[in-house]
Structures are given as structure tokens and as C-alpha cells.
Amino acid sequence: MLAALLAPMAASAETPAPPQPEAAAAELAVTLPNGEVVAKPTGAGAVMGAAGKNTPRAIAPSALGAAPQSQTLSEAAPKASGQPAGTEGMPAGMDVSGWQQNVDWRAAWNGGARFAYVKASEGPWTLNDYFAQQYNGAAGVGMLRGAYHFARPNLSSGANQAAVLVDSGGGWSADGMTLPGVLDLEANGSDSSGTCFGMTPSQLVAWTKDFTITYKALTGRDAVIYTAYYFWQDCLGKSSIFSQANPLWIAAYGAAANDVWMPGNWPQYTFWQFSSTGPFVGDSNVFNGGMDQLKTFAGGALSVQAAAIQAAAAANPSIGTGQGQVNCGLANNGCFRMFTNGAIVWSPASGAQVSPYGAIRDAWGGQGFENGALSYPSSGILCGLAKSGCFQAYLGGEIFSSPGSGAQVSRAGEIRTAYRNSGAENGPMGYPVGSETCGLAKDGCYQLYEGGAIIWSPSTGAQLSPFGPIRTAWGAAQFESGSLGYPTGSIVCGLPNGGCYQAFEGGAVLYSPATGAQASLNGPLRAAWGDAGYQNGSLGYPTGSQVCTPTNQSCYQLFQGGTVAWTAAVGALYVTGGINAGWLASGGATGPLAYPTGTPVCGMQDGGCYQSFQNGYLIWTPATGGQVSLNGPIRDAWQRMGFQGGTHGYPTTGVVCGLKGGGCYQNYQRGAIIWSPATGAQSSPAGAIRDAWQRSAFETGPLAYPTTDVVCGLKGGGCYQNFSGGAIIWSPATGAQLSLNGQIRSAWQARGFENGSLGYPTGPQSCNTGQTTCSQPFQGGKLNWDASRGVWIS
Predict the structure, then answer these.
(1) What is the percent of the chain where pLDDT is above 90?
(2) Rounded alpha-carbon distances, angstroms, from residue 644 to 343, 563, 635, 648, 683
């Protein structure tokens, strides 16, 4: 680095080659246009400020008009001894030339100097044998430093002398330590050309413009112009064309800080040379700003940042006073400055924005400040939102804060867009209560809010999931990891009976006040429901979730108006009305009938209907309701009797088992069918015989189960039914009487039953306690039995 500073600075390879000087810097003499030969000065050449010290003349300001006043800037720097009152906080500095020879830079630093300008050239020559010691020595102790050129406009063009300055070490680099070069434009008392170099104001303005344009072309920076008030006003005709681009270095000795007059319509000075007699070696100066502004000025393009930060501080006094300097080099060419109550942060894309200490700044810090996803703030903090909330916008999103939710990040992206479109904190979601979280199934992300969540996936975009029954149902289905997947739209309400729905990748969730929220998964059940008109059709809203077998070979779902059931073998079928009620009462798909295998068939007698199922039928009539008729011996017996057109009519119960000996029965409108493993299925029609069996305690009595159906056509219009324990005999004359297995029944059988002399029994058999003596009356007498005597008729 030091070797580079010792060598003359060359133009960048990216800039055009500078115009060739009309007289090379190495020449010892130049010939003026009038033919006069001017020799190169010996020694260090002219001294800055030597031609009168530029003290304002004793003329009342009113005679000159209102002269612009310098405006001091901000941050404090060490105060040098002898620094003018009113410049406290301004960095002090010095300018030197070959006349000062080897300078004690450490002593200057300790005395408060923070910058230095070193003479590099004069006219068409390089003039300063001590340039390297002075230029590098100032940098070595930490000063910002630059080089100046003493103008001799009458000797060569402005372009030539600008190139001489650059070639002599007065170039510029964005290293944060190099100040832009200076054109020292003042009267030269040793020059015979006169106070204004023998040139008119327009000629000097053109020469100065030639210099400044060339210097900027060679370095990329606008040259600083050093001058004095009266020299500029007299010799350059008060020209104001340089006041917008070229910083002013004003020489004014003996002036008060608030009374330094500005020439050429400059609004303020950048440097003020206030003394040639100390406190520093050479001439003493101040920079009109703070140390941060001086460093920004050295950085060139960074001056925009510092100015913006200063303006933001002025517009936001609550941020407090500056702490330290403007620091740059952040991501995307950003800068910041700390203040007592926070920071002001600047980037080309966001401008300067305040970042006060507090919850919002903490949340930004938790994201990595400008290096995180939020990048730079793009607005100040705005409060007065709902629920006493505040927010701050960033290039990459926003941070919202409220007493109830704390400070939470809302990153730019589809989730934030959906949140904004929903009304942000004023909408149903309220304030965010957590940060955006990713890593879900299918690369999805979500963010929680006071009112729910917003869910995003690459295939579905960002969708709202407000707290409520629909979100609860989705959660019960395992959110995005479950069968519904991600939502594909917002909640839509206004359906019949106050209903709402939300579509998902795997179906939808339907809600109504009467049914609650239920999932409707894509597949044959949902398709069949759709064929029936969804919630607008006869099925209405789902009242439960889809239920499938472990192998997914069959599924069903309940609805207000029925059930949709599906099997792989048959497809989807509807079960509705009374049939559905009876089926569900029997256990539905998990009951004895299992799944439907056909559609309902109606038009039977008495308004009856039936529907086939895997294990039987569901029979319904208005009078009997829906009853199960399982495949098996009881149904076969009913079929033999002619189903509902037979003696028994429609079933009035399902099959009831658990009877004695493993028996089962089913009641019908006109009787019952009884089954046991030993006796099979037998009819028990309503009538006297069944009544008598009932009085004997049905299958638990002495007759036990019937072994035949009722048989009629006997003598005198009689009927009978055999049972395991005997028979029941009926005739119009005798009514229904039990005939129990035993000696008396055997004796009656031996005499021809009802066709014999005894005829029909007229009463029950009666026995003593020990069952050693029994008797039973008949139409033709009484049959008696005694264990010791046997049978006899009386």
C-alpha cells in the first residue's frame, strides 16, 4: 500500500486516457503564448494562501448584499487548540507543502488534526520533494488525506494541469481515506501576470471548467475548489456554475464562524482555512461536518448516504443524538449510524429509515438485520393501528407489533400478500403471533395469527385457515399431512342453512350449524354425493367423516339425508330414508348387514321397500320401520312362507339371538320365526297356539323350541305344532292345549290322538310334586298315569 502511494496515481483502466498535457510535468520551463519563457520554480513553489490571506475587507455586509452563511453539521471530533469558536465538533485538519518538509504527523494527530491536504503540483510541474513523507505520513497515523494543485492558469490549460495533479499523486480511490483532489485557485504574488493571471473572468471560468471536467474524467470525483471570497468575486465574476458540483474550500482568516462569506453562490463551505499560524504546521482548517460526514466525503458516493441519514435524524428527533460515525460496507451497499435511541439505516433501495430500540428492532435483529430475509427497513415505525399496534415496512416484508401478539415478522411473499389481501391486522387474521415456518409436507410453509393461520405450498399458493370448526376438522384430519392436504381456496359461506365450505387438495370441509364441520374426501363417496347435488340435494350436508375398512375396499359416509356407501366390488350406493334409519340402527356398515349391494326397491304392499346388502336385506314399511332380514335360515323360512305376502307379513324386529341353547328369533307382524341349532327355523304364527306357547314360557318352558310349523286340517278343524318337549293342539271346541312328551301323550298317541275315542285335550296336564302321578282331561275322558299302576282312563 505504501509503495502505491509513493508512486504517481495512474488513471483507471476503465476510464478514458487523459488528455496529454501541453507541457510535460518533467519540463523545467514553459513558453507562454506571448513567447515569454517561464522557468520551473525552485524549491517548494508557491504556498497556499500566500497571496493575501483572504480576510474579508472591512466593508459592511449591507453594501455587499446578504452573503450566504456556512451551516455547521453534526458529530463531535476532538477540538484542536486554537480552533475557532463555533466550530466545536468539526474535525480539524491542516494543509502542507514542500516548505514544511518532514512533518511530525503523530504530534499533529495528538494535537487534534484528523485530515490533511498535501501539495502535489503547481502549474505544469510536479512540485513537492516531500510529498511521499507528507501524504503517507498523514495516512500512517490515521488521518484522511488528499492532494492539492496550485493553479497557474496563464502557463497551460486546465486539462493539462488536472492531468499533472493526478500524475503527481492527486488522484482518488474509494479506500475510505483519500480525499478528492483540490484546485488551489488564488492570486500568485510572484507571478508578473497580475492578480487574475492576466485573464478575464470568462477566461478564468472556462479554464477552471476545463480543469474540473478533466479531473472528474480521470478520477470519478469532483475536485474541491480552494479560493477566497474577493478573488472569486473579482477574478471569476461571481460565477455560480461550480457551486452545485464542486465542494468549496474557503480561505478566511480572522472571521467569526458565523460570518464566513460564501462566493459564487455556494450555500456553505466544505473546508474552512482559518489560520496560517497554527495550531498546526502549515495552514489550519476545519471540515464543515462531523467525523462521519468527513469519512463519507472521502468515500465519494457515500456522501449521499450520510446526508440521507442526517435528514432522517432531523425528521425523527426521537431517535436522539448521533453516537459514532456513519458506517458503510453493509449488504447491498448499505450504511448505518447509531443514535442514543436506536439507529438510522440506509440502502440505495430503501433510503434512510429509523430503527428505534424496542420490540420491532429486536425482531428485525432476530432475523439477522439487513442480512436477513427482511433486508432494510423501507419506512419508519407507524403506530395507531388496531389494538394499539405498530408496524414497520422492510424491503423483504414487515414487522407487526401489538401488546397482545408481540413483535412478529411478516416476510414478503405469498403468505404476506394473502394476509394483506385479507385486511392485515384489521381482517379476520388479526396480528401475526409467530414467524413464518417452513419445512412442511411438499415444501409448504405457514404462519400463525391471532385469528388462525395462513398456509402455503408451491402447488396451492397461500390460503387462509381461520380458527373455527372448519380448521378444527382439518386439524383432526392431520392438517396438510393428512388426507385433505393443503387448502386450495378460502372459506366460502352463504350455502343453504347457513353453511360454509373450504376446498382442499384432497376434497373439502363442509360446515353447517346443524351438522358441524365434516370432511368430504375426493373419491367415489364425494363423487356420488356430487351426483346427488352436494348439500343442495337430497343428501344434504355430511354428518360424519368418511369411514373405510383397513384395506380400503369399502367406505361409507353419513349425511343428513342418508348414507353413501362404497365397495370396490359394487361401487357407490345411496342408503336413504327409513331403510337408512333401520340400517344405521342395526350398526350400519359395521353391523350384521354390512354394505349395500343394490338400490332401494319400493312399491311393495303396504308401501313397503327393501334394499339388498352384503348379508341380507333391510325391509321397511311405514308401519314397521326399517328391519333387518339377514341371510340365513330365518329368512329362508320367511321366504318359504311368501315373505311379506305370507302369513307373517313384514318383520317388526331384527333377528334376536342369545336364546336358550343358542337359539334366535325374529318377530313379524303376524308371528315370529324361531330357530335353534337342534330344531332349525320354524314358524310361530300369531294365534292360539303361539299364545299357549308364550304362556308356557316359550323356549324356556317345557315345550322348548318348535320342531315344525303349525299344521292344520285336523279333525273338527283342529291344528297342531310340534315342539321339542311335545306339541300344542288346538281345535275350535277345545282351544289350544299343551301335550307334553311323557306317558300321557304316549297313551293318547296309542289311542289315535284326536282321531281316537279321547278326541282333543281340553285342559293342561297336571302332575303331583314328585311327578309320580299325572292326568290330563280330553273330550272323551281323562287320561291318568301313576308310576306304580301305569295309564288308565277315567
Answers:
(1) 80
(2) 91, 26, 11, 7, 14
Mean pLDDT over each residue of the chain, to the nearest integer = 90
Note the pLDDT of residue 23. Answer: 38
Q: Which residue has the higher pLDDT, 170 or 307?
A: 170
Write phi, then psi, for 137 (nearest 5 degrees): -65, -40
pLDDT digits (tens, 9 = 90+) for 91-135: 999 999 999 999 999 999 999 999 999 999 999 999 899 999 999
> Of residues 75, 122, 167, 184, which has the active-site annotation?
184
Dihedral sign of CA atoms 463, 466, 470, 474 in order: positive
Amino acid occupying residue 555: C
Are the beta carbons of 596 and 613 closer than 8 angstroms? yes
The set of residues, in sequence order, having a beta carbon less than 8 Å from that of 476 and lying 6+ positions away, is none
Q: Are 507 and 526 in contact (CB under 8 A)?
A: yes
Residue for grid cell 494543485: 149
> What contacts 24+ positions apart, CB below 8 Å, involve 82-87?
82/275, 82/278, 82/279, 82/284, 83/112, 83/279, 83/284, 83/286, 84/256, 84/257, 84/274, 84/286, 85/256, 85/257, 86/256, 86/257, 86/258, 87/257, 87/272, 87/286
Q: Which residues contact 646 (CB under 8 A, 6 or more apart)?
A: 638
Closest CA to 22 of 172, 169, 152, 200: 152
What grid cell was written down for 420? 394483506
Examine the residue annotation and report whether 450 is marked as an active-site residue of this protein.
no
Residue 138, C-beta contacts closer than 8 angstroms, at least 6 positions apart: 103, 105, 108, 115, 116, 118, 145
Cell numbers for 60, please give them.
459592511
Which one, of 87, 105, 106, 84, lies nearest residue 96 by Cα? 105
- Count Cβ atoms below 10 Å from residue 766 Cβ, excluding itself: 11
- What is the residue whose three cell numbers read 361401487? 571
Q: Name residue, grid cell 284326536.
A: 754
Please say whether the beta carbons of 202 and 238 come within 8 A. no
DSSP state of 527: H
- Please state whether the peptide bond connecting residue 33 to the residue before it is cis, i.e. omega within 30 degrees of 0: no
Reduced to 3 states (helix: H, G, I; strand: E, B; else coil), residue 174 is coil
Residue 627 has pLDDT above 70, yes or no: yes
The dihedral formed by the CA atoms of 416, 422, 428 and 432, expressed in degrees to the nearest 10: 10
Query: Is 186 known to be catalytic?
Result: yes
Res 186: pLDDT: 94
Active site residue 414: no
Size of the chain in residues: 794
Of 186, 292, 370, 699, which one is the catalytic site residue?
A: 186
Beta-strand relationship, 389-394 and 397-402: antiparallel
Query: Facing residues of 675 across strands?
Result: 664, 681
Contact 454, 465 (CB under 8 A): yes
DSSP-assigned letters across all residues of 682-693: EEEESSHHHHHH
Q: Write out pLDDT tens, residues 332-377.
A: 989 898 999 999 999 999 999 999 999 999 999 999 999 999 999 9
- Among positive and negative, which fits the CA dihedral 636, 642, 646, 647? negative
Mean pLDDT, residues 712-734 taken together: 97
105, 138 in Cβ contact below 8 A?
A: yes
* Residue 277, burial from CB neighbour count under 10 angstroms (0-12, 13-18, 19+): exposed
Distance in Å from the first CA to the final CA of the chain? 149
Which residues neighbour 788 within 8 Å (Cβ) at sequence distance 6 or greater?
none
Q: Among residues 75, 95, 210, 754, which one is catalytic?
A: 95
Strand residues in 281-396 grouped as ranges (E): 283-287, 322-328, 335-339, 342-347, 351-356, 377-385, 389-394
Number of H helices, E strands in the chain: 17, 46
At 24-74, the pLDDT tens digits run 344 577 776 667 777 788 778 777 874 344 444 333 232 222 233 333 334
